[in-house]
Amino acid sequence: MGTAIQVGDRAPDFELTAADGRKVKLSDFRGKKNVVLYFYPASETPGCTMQACAFRDAYSVFQELGAEVIGISGDSVERQQGFQKNHQLPFLVLSDPGNKVRQRYGASSLFGLLPGRVTYVIDQEGVVRYVFDDMLNFKAHVDEALKVLRQLTNATA
């Protein structure tokens, strides 16, 4: 496990494959959009589905605030495709084989076994502005990210 990325750190760049097969880099958004990057344990599990649907239901608000939402788990691209399709997820869902990006971020795990649920709000310059780590409060990841984005938007307005 890497050292946990904290507020004020530059978010490590990565390139992962999205559910639709394209390669996505975090740096693709630099200078264009804030990014809400969230790591979740596994597609199609009850908590992860609730969390993804909460992000889905608020996606238009994230867009209005100039942010892109990116979900990442260690699931295969094929599994991510099914997850995205089954729940009509409008945001990027990325496959992180072997959880290598998760480890670079130092995103927590539960008892060292189950990958944790951690959300990062990253500004347009690639700086982490907020980290929220809570395994069980699925919707709070959405609420907290929106709160931080509103503060960032007001600060730059």
UniProtKB/TrEMBL annotation:
BP GO terms, sorted: cell redox homeostasis; cellular response to oxidative stress
Entry function: Thiol-specific peroxidase that catalyzes the reduction of hydrogen peroxide and organic hydroperoxides to water and alcohols, respectively. Plays a role in cell protection against oxidative stress by detoxifying peroxides and as sensor of hydrogen peroxide-mediated signaling events.
Q: Please state what class of enzyme this protein is.
A: oxidoreductase
User: What are the protein's UniProt keywords?
Assistant: Antioxidant, Disulfide bond, Oxidoreductase, Peroxidase, Redox-active center, Thylakoid, Transit peptide
Q: Which GO terms describe its cellular component?
A: cytoplasm; thylakoid
Q: Which Gene3D superfamilies has this protein been placed in?
A: Glutaredoxin
Q: What is the lineage of its organism?
A: Bacteria, Bacillati, Cyanobacteriota, Cyanophyceae, Acaryochloridales
Catalytic site: C48
Question: What is the originating organism of this protein?
Answer: Thermosynechococcus sichuanensis E542
Question: Can you name this protein?
Answer: thioredoxin-dependent peroxiredoxin
GO MF terms on file? thioredoxin peroxidase activity
Give the EC number: 1.11.1.24
- The answer, when asked if Transmembrane helix is one of the entry's keywords, is no
N-terminal signal peptide: none
Q: Where in the cell is it found?
A: Thylakoid
Q: Which family does it belong to?
A: Belongs to the peroxiredoxin family. BCP/PrxQ subfamily.
Tree of life domain: Bacteria
